[in-house]
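Reviewer 2 asked us to include a model.

Predict the structure of this chain.
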Amino acid sequence: MSMGDGFNFEPWLRVGSFAAVLLLMVAAETFHPRRRYSQTRLSRWSNNLGLAVLNTLSLRLIFPLTAVQWALYCESQGWGLLNRWSLAPGWTIVTSLLVLDWAIYWQHRLFHVIPVFWRLHRLHHTDLDIDTTTAIRFHPLEMLLSMALKMMIIVTLGAPAITVLLFEVLLNASAMFNHANFYLPPRLDRALRWILVTPDMHRVHHSILREETDSNFGFNLPWWDRLFGSYREQPAAGHEAMTIGLKEFRDPRQLAFGYLLIQPFRSIPGKSPPSSSTVTKDQE
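Predicted model (structure tokens):
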């Protein structure tokens, strides 16, 4: 079975959807921003887009198959729970989407708890502003680890390839949406955040305050944060006044591209990683 059978459109779909959502979010941020920027877009975008290019190249170099191609191979071998259970196609898709999103929530949460993982993930939180390009600001080692974990989930679950493709497209689009710096009317935001993670909901997660950094871990569906006690409705200082980033990384010179790549290997004396155990039901 060819890994590309029936999915030759995958690269075009992913690149096309990425470009379309990116342009739409940039337009929204430009014409109706939620917050004022403290840094120039040029310096931040060059870092964030540069990381995205490096991450894409690293994934292609290390992993011979994409997540969708891996799902196709698992299907052909009959691996995974859903390839052994006889479920209706609709239920298989829904179950796969929910489990994949649930797994991404817990992966994100654990990356805030386990020190070695936090060293990789903290680069994402060192952006001194937040906009749609922050959604692609990740260290290459984190992306490689995330891909390995995703492939383990796919083979264990037996998620259909079409569902994995749909999930990848939705996850990328929702991440760019909920990192975007554009204004949503409060009433619309309150309604939307029952079915998806909104920009105001996720922005809390990028607060400099530790208890707020350890909240709102969801990228796509908001239900896991509410269910597992990590939901925080608003930042204490308000969205316009809140400080974005980490206390340890405020010097723009330390946020140059080269420094970002070595950041996981730099020690910060006396600093410990955030811990999701600090978020309780009382903070909802």
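The first helix runs from residue 10 to 31. The chain is about 55% helix and 0% strand. We have added this to the supplementary material.
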